[in-house]
Amino acid sequence: MFRESVSKATKVVLLPAMLLACGQLMAAQSTAPAAPPAAAPQAAPAAAPVNPTTTGPMPGSGLAQHPFVYCGEFDYVHPVQTIYLVRDGRVKWKYEIPTRMMVHGKNQMAELGDCTRFSNGNILFSYRWGASIVTPSKKIIWNFDAPEGTELHSAQPAGKNRVLVALNGDPTKLLVINTVTGKTEKELALPTLHPDQVHGQVRRAHFTKAGTFLVGKIEEHKVVEYDANGKEVWSADIPGDWDPVRLRNGNTLVSGNQRGFVREINPKGEVVWDIEKDDLPGFPLDVVQEVERLDNGDTVICNWVAGDTKPEQWQNTVQIIEVTPDKKVVWALKEWGDPDFGPASSIQLLDQKGKPEDGDLQR
Known about the structure:
By secondary structure, the protein is mainly β.
């Protein structure tokens, strides 16, 4: 979780401690260190005050509207964080990690911030202290541990057997890692405005079809595109950008974190389409995290939580909103019961054309 302030070596571990369906870490090999237990269950949040603008039937077909993979950060009221796979209107598969785990000798909160399903069914995810790939049988086949003093909130496919991770630290780094060999094939150190404010540096970085790197630098209020050598080739001033997505038309779709906007900007940095915080009557945007442009031109928004860190307000939030180019809401998902999806950080719709590992999706 990151709220904007108004205010070294890299280690790769193959076949690490596994995260099984029970949500506890188990050793993948007999030599792996014992993992910490999951945190004790916490009290459920108090009932949310009724928000009349988000009660009643939601537009669309609920869980049956699209097949999708979903995860979200900072669901600290539960002892586990969960990745969901939904098909045919119901949860078909889920994978859990402990909400708290021992990291570099400290009991730390994990955050599921980035989840992507490869075309072979494996799922890549970040959890703040590293990134992993899990198979449909719930076996961890690759893991990267973030070095001490760093955090990892972005893990994206960069080819069939490669991932791009953004490593927040001093300095911020982009790493392209071969998941078969375990080798870091590229390491780019990025200019870092606040090296001591590791948590808020980067939430999402993408490897583009052009071979460049598109990075949302929240604390610097800008989106920056770097070439293969780490040289800045394009940037745009975007207050609090959480997720920048390069669209097929050459424009860039960006999300506004707690400022609650979605904007499409052209290469000149001009806004050519946008949704602001209160543009969708009945569906107020609070903290906008991941955004996705669909094949039909619609935009899907991850609307994290209303009320920020106050769980009693979370159930007022419509977590997922699909909106047409003319700003009509055609699908809204509000799931805080059974299933309880928790806060929304990432969603991948599985009915879109192309392969995520080839950079075909607009997310």
